[in-house]
Amino acid sequence: MRNGPDLHFEQLAARWGRRLIAGVDEVGRGPLAGPVTAAAVILDPHRVPRGLADSKVLSAKARESAFGDILSQAVAVSIACVEAEEIDRINIRQACHAAMRNALRGLAVAPDYALVDGNDMPRGLGCDGETIVKGDARSLSIAAASIVAKVTRDRLMARMHKLYPAYGFDAHAGYATKAHLAAIAAHGPCRLHRMSFSPMRRSALFAPA
Predict the structure, then answer these.
(1) Among 78, 98, 173, 205, fewest CB within 10 Å belongs to which?
(2) Long-range CB contacts (< 8 A, 24+ apart) of 195-202?
């Protein structure tokens, strides 16, 4: 049994003649505020950074370290965000798909194949691919994408905290913690909030700050 992510899926794709294989993952599907962020990463199979794992099981320090290694050692890395206003307009599933498509299209080299975390394959990726359930724990390419997406979004939400300090975005990154819900109740939503999400619809009487 494999212990942690490896190159099994990448090697299978390579046997089918796929040379440039991108791992794709997104973060930020569940928060009440901020963008959904996707990353696409094409690893060099001969220069894989150490310590890659599902971003959710790594400490913030380990993610930051891996993030730098991925950027310096990968063949190509691309990041894409879909903001709250667009999430409200097209729904979160379509926003996740759009972010993943845009991340793939932003790669400096076009991938031959995409390994996508989950079980919901976006349309129009521009290349063949497959979904892998719990892919961030099984594929090194997807694990790398999950780390890049997570670090990018966390950094962005920390910057947004400076613009909207009342909500504590640097602590919870927009998720529905008790402190975040209390801040919304006290101050109403800001422009980063996803007004189509259920807790926010109950705050619809407040104009975004």
Answers:
(1) 205
(2) 195/84, 195/88, 196/87, 196/88, 196/91, 196/92, 197/32, 197/92, 199/32, 200/32
CA separation for the pair 193, 37 (Å, rounded): 15
Residues near 17 by beta carbon (within 8 Å), at least 6 away in sequence: 112
Strand partners, 38: 26, 80
Per DSSP bridges, beta strands 36-42 and 76-82 are antiparallel
Closest CA to 114 of 134, 132, 99, 133: 132
Q: Does position 116 have pLDDT exceeding 70, yes or no?
A: yes
Contact of 9 with 139, CB cutoff 8 Å: yes
Residue 62: pLDDT above 70? Answer: yes
Q: Which of 16, 93, 14, 17 is nearest to 46 (CA)?
A: 14
CB 66 within 8 A of CB 49: yes
Share of the chain above pLDDT 70, in %: 95
Q: Look up tokens 């930051």; give the residue.
A: 64
